[in-house]
Design brief:
2 helices, globular, four-stranded antiparallel sheet, single chain, alpha+beta
Amino acid sequence: MLTQAEFETLINDPEKVIDGDITWTQERSPRSGFRVEILSPAGYPLFLKGSYNPIIVALSYHIITAPATDPVRVWEQFCQEAKIHHNGRMDTPPPTQLDLFL
C-alpha cells in the first residue's frame, strides 16, 4: 500500500496519461461504467473507474492504486482514503472455478 506521501506525489504528478479511448459499458441497468489504466512514470498500478446512473443522476470517478487482483488491498486503500475505520476484516474472495467456464 502507498504511504500518504507517495499517494500525494502520484496524484500530483502531471505526467500521468490515459492512453486510448474510454468506453462506457452497461453494468447493471441503468448503471454504466468503465475502468482504464493510468500510466505514470512512477510505475505504480493505477486505474480510474467511472460509474454513471442517469436515473438518480449519480456520476463518480475513483482512482485505485492497488492492483485489482488484490481486493483486500483495494478495500484497505479505499478505507484509508475515505477515512473509514473498518473494525473487522475483509476476507479474500473465494477461488474461481475456471473449469466451470471451459
